Amino acid sequence: MSMGARRTCPSCGNEFFGAMQFCPVCMLRKGLAGGVESGEASGSEDTVKLTTFEQVVPRFEHYELLMGQDGKPVELGRGAMGITYKAFDVDLHCPVTLKVIHERYLGDESARLRFLREARMAARLRHSNVASVLHLGRTGNSYFYAMEFVEGETLENLIKRSGRLEPKLALEIVAQVEAGLTAIQKQHLVHRDIKPSNIMVSLKEGKLESVKIIDLGLAKGVAEEDAISSLGSFIGTPEFASPEQFAGIGADIRSDLYSLGVTLWEMLAGKLPFQGSRVDLMDQHQHARPPSEQLKGIPAPIAALLEIVLAKDPNDRFQSPPQLQKALARVKEAIISKSRLSAKDLRSDDPAAVKGPKKYAFRWILASSICAAALVFGGLFFFGYRGSLSNQRDAGATPIEKALRYFPSKTSAQTKMTPTLPMASKTRF
Amino acid sequence: MERDLGPLAKGAASFHTTRWTIVMRAAQSQAPGSQSALAQLCRTYWYPLYMFARRRGYSPDDAQDLTQGFFLHLLEHRALAGVDRLKGKFRSFLLASFQNHLSDLVDRARRLKRGGDKEFVWLDAEEAEQRYRLEPVECLTAEKLFDARWAMTLLAEVLNRLHQKYATEGKTSTFEALNVFLDPVSSTTPPSYEEVANRLQVSTGAVKTLIYRLRKQYTTLFREEVGRTVSDPAEIDEEIHALCEALIASEGRLGP
């Protein structure tokens, strides 16, 4: 067949073999869900509408929304600002995720600015563990932006399907989210909404292939004043929010690490550490100890890690994602070698702090004795009878429960925060 | 789910619009009619595999033997029994299985005549070779050529089924007069509605209604056919997009 026999389709612009009656690409596209002719045809010339695929499938510039079996666009999620769809880039011929600003915000200038800021913020990030923004566009008075399409499912779905995740898998997921957070921190941003539904995971035959942070809808610059939301209002998802987020004061990357800690907890326990109304959640995240009984059977080094990431005071947490990364490596090492690893060990930068079973046993007994004595005397001195009750409770506790009881119930940071708690607004915006 | 094999006993006709995974599982369980249904599915899509083998350097005789042998292998119950995780696209499954089959044969005895006198899938080798000689093999990899040819095969199958449907209803002349309107934009000389109305002895309003019905039937048959080749109806649109991509990559070099 001679090459000169090709024609260019006036409809889609693709070349096709000249002797063919139809453009095969157009013919294939007519088979898409949106290409099904709709409406009842009658014999009347005026009432028959011969709809075409191009007229039926919603299109945003060169992105076509993929249609589901019900003839509606395939929706991937709904956020505060917009709806995300699965779409197809007809120029590059690849699937994309398209986020379209919600209709109710079309005439809202501040919402429009927030949406644009979200897209621009996300576009600054280029990392294998963060979904990349590819394009920002406008159709009519509506805004949209295209992101890379991430294969897999949300971590939320995975947890729902699996109940509890294996500690090894949970730690691998945390390590990859941490890498994404490192990239976010390098751009001087805070995500502010790290949670399982904003983490995409891809598994192949039970093995982790990739993890990506999605939806930077609530991200902001660390030094940036949140002029769009009212000062002091709560921004985030209450179940995963850090104490400082509830306080409505400057959250930095340590706040994201706290949310990642709650996510890790949910992966391991199959449930959230704190539940209830928003007011309950605020109170629990700021004051309550996580329910250690949910972590029965989880390796103690992970409990020690959780103790740090879920510390109420940001100063008591890891100060950056790389610090968490180092700690993760030590936790894995301790689990493999069956060594003991306390939160104190993890806070120290010395990897030698991981102790072998024998050596540790001796130090643990010594340290425990000193701590117990200090607690008893301190407790008697400061709290009298309350202290003795606490010690009685510890007597029947598991090592993990004991470890988790070191979570501060109230911190200096909170003491500072409490007067500023403006919880009148508890919604995302 | 796909476990409901109730209609299988009704014979091969029941499988005509059934997903390939169900046909395969039915063949595994030796349900009545499943074997011929699978053979029919393979018969429709054998040419892309033949072409793939030729593009890989096999001679016409070898390519024919390999394709025929592969289908025999696939259609044997024992071969299917090993397939415990059927999912995804039939196109991908078939190509991957064929590639494995080729590797296995290289490891064993090459040029072994497969199948003996058993012929589950009839292959017209002469026609295949004539078609292959016209393929733009030098421009595309074997895999790209396979995907693009698969898309063309599927399209041809749908148009053929549409034609047959009209013929069964005694409306061949209607189909021949109207099929150009399936894609009037790309057609070089689409007639006017009035011309078609005169030809069919109906009003122009009736012509529009007939075109509407033709397009609707085309879309329905098309989705039905693609639906046979994926394991989940939700994958139909994705597969159509993938086929479009394959055709675009062929840059219009493939003939009908």
Structural account:
The complex is a heterodimer of chains A (429) and B (256). Chain A is of the alpha+beta class. Chain A has two domains: 59-148, Phosphorylase Kinase, domain 1 (2-Layer Sandwich); 153-420, Orthogonal Bundle (Transferase(Phosphotransferase), domain 1), CATH 1.10.510. Helices cover 39% and strands 15% of the residues of chain A. Chain A has helices at 24-29, 53-56, 109-123, 155-162, 167-186, 243-247, 253-269, 278-287, 300-309, 321-337, 343-347, 357-383, 385-395, 399-404, 412-417; strands at residues 6-8, 15-17, 59-60, 63-65, 75-78, 82-89, 94-101, 133-139, 142-148, 153-154, 189-190, 199-204, 207-213, 220-221. The N and C termini of chain A lie far apart (62 Å). With 256 residues, chain B is mostly helical. Chain B has two domains: 1-134, no CATH class; 136-256. Chain B is 62% helix and 0% strand. In chain B, helix 10 (193-200) crosses helix 11 (204-228). At the A-B interface, strand 2 and helix 1 of A face helix 8, helix 11 and helix 12 of B.
Q: What's the layout of helices and strands?
A:
The complex is a heterodimer of chains A (429) and B (256).
Chain A: E1 6-8, E2 15-17, H1 24-29, H2 53-56, E3 59-60, E4 63-65, E5 75-78, E6 82-89, E7 94-101, H3 109-123, E8 133-139, E9 142-148, E10 153-154, H4 155-162, H5 167-186, E11 189-190, E12 199-204, E13 207-213, E14 220-221, H6 243-247, H7 253-269, H8 278-287, H9 300-309, H10 321-337, H11 343-347, H12 357-383, H13 385-395, H14 399-404, H15 412-417
Helix pairs in contact in A: 5-7, 5-10, 9-10, 12-13
Chain B: H1 20-28, H2 34-44, H3 46-55, H4 60-75, H5 77-81, H6 90-107, H7 125-133, H8 142-168, H9 172-178, H10 193-200, H11 204-228, H12 236-249
Helix pairs in contact in B: 1-2, 3-4, 3-8, 8-9, 8-11, 8-12, 10-11
